[in-house]
Amino acid sequence: MIAAGILTIAAALCANAASATSEIPSAATTSPCLSPSALCGVEAPWGRGGFFGRRLDLATPTQCLEFCSADRTWGECVSFSFSSSGTCWIHNAPAADVVGGSTGSGIWIWDKECWDCGELGPIGDVPTRTTSAATATATCLSPTARCEVEARWKGDEAVGSWGRYVGGEVGDGPYACWEVCTDARRPDRCKAFSWEAEEGVCLFYDHTADESHDEEPGSGVWVWDVDCWRCGVSGYM
Question: Which of the four CATH numbers 2.20.25.110, 1.10.3370.10, 3.50.4.10, 3.40.50.720 does domain 141-230 have?
Fold first, then answer.
């Protein structure tokens, strides 16, 4: 279900490029620092591969790079896309394995190695914005919010989980948990969720992560308050 949802999102983003060919754009540079197939600042919608994280209302591709480069416990950002609307998607595959279309999409994609090599492509052609959500994260989150913390449930049934999800692919990671947690068809009672990485099991809580879990490095269980994702500071959203 989750994988299908991601594909639906990808299809919608590609709607403006319905008449585009399926040819992969050529690399924007031939620098010896880069892989031969690297794409640097190519305007092309992604459609053949999904994403494992997203942030909204960013101002520039540089902020998208910062999100891509953030320390994570799950998922490696290999490439990222930035749209003219300020949306940033990060991908755990090379750009050439992700894109599916041609120019005119309003979405630009880079392999992270482009930035590591200082080969940004035609970045001057990429629209930027004057406002950014990045400046709002400090006031968006509660001081007690827990975002991507390795932890263990306290064992108190009063703050126990009310739901469990194991239907998605393990590769969907915590993004699948977040999708189920915020599904509009469910009661508005999901304040936090945990993700057990090895089996891909999500548990949902109507208490905050601080109330339901204690930090415990090495537990193999990661916990997030939903507000982490809403505020864009989870490491994934």
Answer: 3.50.4.10
